[in-house]
Write a structure and sequence with these properties.
CATH class: Alpha Beta
Helix content: 10-25%
Largest sheet: 5 strands, antiparallel
Strand content: 35-45%
Order of helices and strands: EEHEEEHH
Length: 130
């Protein structure tokens, strides 16, 4: 059995630019993705961590970090397609949480970068779940 946890926002550091000149600059966003192995005596799993940064000029307007995890029975075997779906679901939760929370910021027209799956070594990550 696979259980997905609730996405936890571990950091939401919003610093609106005080200088109006900075506020008019283009917003650049970056997305980082980390995945970690989880294991105890009766379960295995992975934790997905997404970090989005929004920058105007040299001013970081927002740092947003969300973590999500999957807990899996040892007997369950995860294939590549299932792993891809797990990571996509985690990213979707991260994205949706941002879409809701951004409304109270100056970033209300910004979007989180899409997750570039071509940079993810899914086959290597499968070894974390053996």
């Amino acid at each position: 059995m696979i259980e997905q946890t609730e996405l936890v926002v571990t950091k939401w550091e919003y610093n609106p630019p005080a200088d109006p000149a900075i506020a008019n600059e283009k917003t650049i966003s970056h997305l980082d993705f980390d995945i970690m192995k989880k294991r105890n005596s009766i379960k295995k799993g992975i934790a997905c961590k997404f970090t989005a940064r929004f920058i105007k000029g040299e001013h970081t307007v927002l740092t947003y970090v969300g973590e999500d995890s999957y807990v899996i029975d040892f007997a369950d075997v995860i294939d590549r397609n299932e792993l891809i779906n797990m990571i996509r679901n985690s990213y979707l939760k991260f994205y949706e949480k941002f879409e809701f929370r951004k409304l109270a910021t100056s970033l209300n027209t910004s979007v989180v970068c899409t997750l570039d799956e071509s940079l993810i070594d899914f086959d290597g990550l499968l070894h974390l779940l053996i």
